[in-house]
Amino acid sequence: MNNRPRRLRGNAMVRNMVRETRVDASSLIYPIFVVEGENIKEEIPSMPGQYRYSVDVLPRALNEIADAGVSNVMLFGIPKEKDSVGSGAWAEDGIVQKALRTAKKECPDLYYITDVCMCEYTSHGHCGILNGHDVDNEKTLPVLAKTALSHVQAGADMVAPSDMMDGRVRVIRTILDQNHYTNIPIMSYAVKYASAFYGPFREAADSAPAFGDRKSYQMDFHNRKEARKEVMLDVEEGADIIMVKPALSYLDIVRETAQSISLPVAAYSVSGEYAMIKAAAQAGWVDEEKIVCETAVSVYRAGAGILLTYYAKELAGWIKEGRIG
After folding, report:
1. Which residues are designated catalytic?
2. How far is residue 33's CA from residue 207's CA, in Å, rounded to a whole number?
3. pLDDT tens-digit series, residues 85-117
4. Global pTM?
5. Which residue stretches of the chain are H helix?
6. How far is it, in rounded angstroms, from Cα 176 to Cα 159?
7. Which residue in 42, 170, 192, 279 is deepest, having the highest Cβ count within 10 Å?
8. Collapsed DSSP state (helix, strand, coil) of residue 53
């Protein structure tokens, strides 16, 4: 036989040399939840090992993230008070704004990305301004724009709109440019499916809708071609990075997105994916490290260059130790 694929599998050195997919800690983003109050480090029941932090405790958590080898953080804010229009989202003393000012002062070497959405801030739990029981796309756009601007003014290095309103990338790009923040990138949740995998996050962020669901603005998980449409619209509107969410059940979408655009592609391994692996590992049914490494590599192999994951700290450690790379 002239062709023997096993020749390049004979030992670790040759396997590492010819490896097609490589994982780097610099491409990891760690999502973190910040709450009002003091001296709070509160574990999230459905996400063991993940916590809500008050702003005064946040620097300790950020230093742990940096020490683990992760340099990128996604901030999610959980306000004490909510109202029908989510006014805490853009308030100067809002939870994300306070967290950013503290984080930039105490841990300036990390890169801070903020989630831009209304669901954590509205009393009804939907991702925009209501007109009756419907989310009004046009009324929501200016609110998202001023929320993004307030985050950048407080120190955000990048903003990531996750609301799935039509046209939101354009209005955010416009308001940032008008205020001389032309160099601030937008990571668009361009392909965000209406998914059951978000359940633990909604507990973590206290953001479950009070009525109905989000299927009128998040995507139908049966649809593949629609993802390309959403991606191309956001590229046209000025997005700098395109995100697919969730990750593991949508690797086909990650692949098609990466093949169809020249922008970087991110994937978000969401709370439900984390919770399932964690629960199975705690029950002794799977090897947690091996499962996490294998699933992470699958996302990169599909074409993502950036991975948002609650396992970012562990992955960075395993990369450093040479267990994954």
Report:
1. 192, 245
2. 12
3. 889 999 999 999 999 999 999 999 999 999 999
4. 0.94
5. 12-17, 58-68, 95-106, 137-154, 168-178, 199-204, 225-237, 251-260, 271-282, 288-302, 312-320
6. 10
7. 192
8. strand
